[in-house]
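FORM 12-B: Structure-to-Sequence Request
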């Protein structure tokens, strides 16, 4: 029997939703019946295009550069104001993938680590905390965070900070799931490999190398991430709370 994901009546905040996997997650949630709050960092035109595609299912656009230490609170407050209540679900999709190898200048190395951890981990923890505080005590809620296979296998020489940030994200979400499942907080992780977005290698040779290490012989489509996120948020398999779902074409099997 096929179980269709339903998010009827749910208010969902999707971060980093102006493009790529975030836009696909927003579409999948809207298709499942949710009202979607579309967060973006700077590209309002791209976010507006996503909102237009969602039509009446778009509950509003939220701007916020999560590299700024206080941005998570501002994003959450905008979500509550636009939605008229705290979101019922949160998708932590935003992130950066910036290079700094061991040969980098110390100033650049430290700046890369500070910025990557702020965006990919600390801002996620801040938003998850605000959501948990709204959900605990009876309301309940669901969270999906987009991690990476790099959290498990590591990444290339220039992206140690990225791998570390995603490993920390997994540990944080697992902890929330273990601590608060009995209070109605459900939390899941998706750990993709390459997703076929503008963050994937654009050079033909680099793309060929990336795809060659994937047994499926292709990158994950953004819509695959969207479909899984919407299903998890639907509560159709609540006992999976705390789990990490690998979406990498068998390029890393645990």
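FORM 12-B RESPONSE
SEQUENCE OUT:
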């Amino acid at each position: 029997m096929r179980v269709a994901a339903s998010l009827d009546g749910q208010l969902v905040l999707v971060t980093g939703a102006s493009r790529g996997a975030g836009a696909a997650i927003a579409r999948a949630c809207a298709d499942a019946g949710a009202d979607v709050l579309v967060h973006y960092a700077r590209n309002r035109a791209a976010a507006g295009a996503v909102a237009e595609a969602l039509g009446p299912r778009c509950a509003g656009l939220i701007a916020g550069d999560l590299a700024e230490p206080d941005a998570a609170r501002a994003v959450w407050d905008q979500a509550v104001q636009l939605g008229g209540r705290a979101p019922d679900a949160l998708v932590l999709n935003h992130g950066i993938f910036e290079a700094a190898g061991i040969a980098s200048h110390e100033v650049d190395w430290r700046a890369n680590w500070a910025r990557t951890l702020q965006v990919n981990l600390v801002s996620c923890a801040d938003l998850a905390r605000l959501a948990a505080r709204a959900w605990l005590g009876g309301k309940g809620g669901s969270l999906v965070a987009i991690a990476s296979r790099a959290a498990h296998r590591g990444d290339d020489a220039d992206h140690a900070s990225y791998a570390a940030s995603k490993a920390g994200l997994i540990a944080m979400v697992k902890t929330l799931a273990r601590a608060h499942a009995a209070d109605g907080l459900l939390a899941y992780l998706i750990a993709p490999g390459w997703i076929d977005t503008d963050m994937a290698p654009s050079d033909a040779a680099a793309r060929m190398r990336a795809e060659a290490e994937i047994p499926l012989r292709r990158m994950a489509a953004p819509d695959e991430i969207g479909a899984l996120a919407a299903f998890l948020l639907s509560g159709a398999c609540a006992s999976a709370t705390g789990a990490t779902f690998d979406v990498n074409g068998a390029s890393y099997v645990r």
